[in-house]
Amino acid sequence: MNKAKIAAMARDLESAYNKGNIPVNLELIAEELGILVRHGKINNDVSGVIFKEGTETVIGINEGEPPERQRFTLSHEIGHFVLHRERDLCVTSQRLFRKPASGDFREMEANAFAAELLMPKQAIENAVLKLSADEVVSKVSELAKTFGVSEQAMTYRLANLQLFPMS
Questions:
Q1: How sure is the predictor about 88, in pLDDT bands with cuts at 50, 70 and 90?
Q2: What is the value of pTM for the model shown?
Q3: Angle at CA 98, nearest 5°, toward 151 and 37?
Q4: What's the first-to-final CA gap in the chain, in angstroms?
Q5: Backbone phi, psi, residue 59, to 5°
Q6: Strands 48-53 and 35-40
Q7: How far is residue 112's CA from residue 59's CA, in Å, rounded to a whole number?
Q8: How many domains does the structure of the chain reveal?
Q9: Is the pLDDT of residue 160 over 60?
Q10: 125 has pLDDT over 50
Q11: What is the extent of the structural domain holding 28?
């Protein structure tokens, strides 16, 4: 699936349930999709999982990770649900920005979905519209807190949107 279609699907989902609120209320979106979210202890190598339990879809989030990481993981797993549930619901140990195994397009798609859902392009552009490049660099921490993501995720998103100078 191409990036534009993935981004459009994330925007549609955010618009339907979250209605532009920042930070995005992922728990509400999961609830609206009929997904149970459970925070608990998971193997340290696993950030989150999505699976079927009887007729229920469950997302498990590793409570041992920082809150911002948990949010990205939840968004990533919602991405799997939206993008891949027709094929299968899979268990994933995707780590943020770890290069997925060759050919594992589902992980790349779920990451792209998560970035758009958590940090909608329009909202990011509006937040940095009047800032110079130097001001954007100095405000990464503030932007990250506003959107409920890590500074690493915000830096990556800004760079991906060509709003942040990468050296």
A1: low
A2: 0.88
A3: 75
A4: 30
A5: -115, 125
A6: unpaired
A7: 18
A8: 1
A9: yes
A10: yes
A11: 3-119
Here the contacts of 91-99 (C-beta below 8 Å, separation 24 or greater) are 91/49, 91/50, 91/51, 92/46, 92/48, 92/49, 92/50, 93/43, 93/45, 93/46, 93/47, 94/47, 94/48, 95/47, 96/47, 96/69, 96/72, 96/150, 96/152, 96/153, 97/152, 97/156
- Both structure tokens of 18: 């979250």
Residue that wins the pLDDT comparison between 52 and 87: 52
- 135 domain-assigned: no
Pick the closest to residue 155 from 132, 128, 137, 130 (CA basis): 137
pLDDT per residue as tens digits for the range 15-71: 999 999 999 999 999 999 999 999 999 887 889 999 888 889 999 999 999 999 999
- In a domain? residue 126: no
> pLDDT at position 29, please?
98
Can you give the CATH number for the domain in which 104 is found? 1.10.10.2910
For residue 165, cis peptide bond before it (omega within 30 degrees of 0): no
Which amino acid is located at 82 in the chain? V
Question: What span, in angstroms and rounded, lies between the C-alpha atoms of 34 and 13?
Answer: 13
- Residue 110 falls within a domain, yes or no? yes
CA distance 51 to 43: 16
What does the block give as tokens for 116?
């758009």
- φ and ψ of 90, to 5 deg: -115, 160
User: Does residue 24 lie in a domain region?
Assistant: yes
